[in-house]
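Encode chain A's predicted structure.
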Amino acid sequence: METWDLLRPVYAIMSVRMLDPESAANSMFQPNPHLSDAINDNIVRSEVEGGVYVKDLPLESKIEIETQNRFYTLVNRGGGQFLISGHPKFCPQPTLVTVAGCNWGGSMLKRAYVGRGMHLEFLHPSYERPIVTSRIIEIRVVR
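Encoded structure for chain A:
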């Protein structure tokens, strides 16, 4: 069985929840038997600890993110793009980046989502590989 076949059910679950937040709120996550307990636990933990689907934010919304090491400010420019600032090397001044989503410290990404206890992953125009932050402690959305 190919990797995509194993991940298809969890991708479908995440996609449905991103597209229809009301149905996600009304349904509980059912562990996927094709995924490890650790992955299922991470998915449940991200829902319990909370976060925000960035694609659902209005234009010009501001997100303040506190990680273990830094404070970031993101301003929504639409289409998954944000002006980000808060890191002395990668974004000392507001820089236009694409927010990929968040991960749990590994390679599995929860797309278009920023969640507590996770690591923000974004694509910077000057770097070939994604930038990954330290663990997110707090998220504040300023509309």
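Strands lie at 51-53, 62-67, 71-78, 81-85, 95-103, 109-111, 113-115, 119-123, 131-142.
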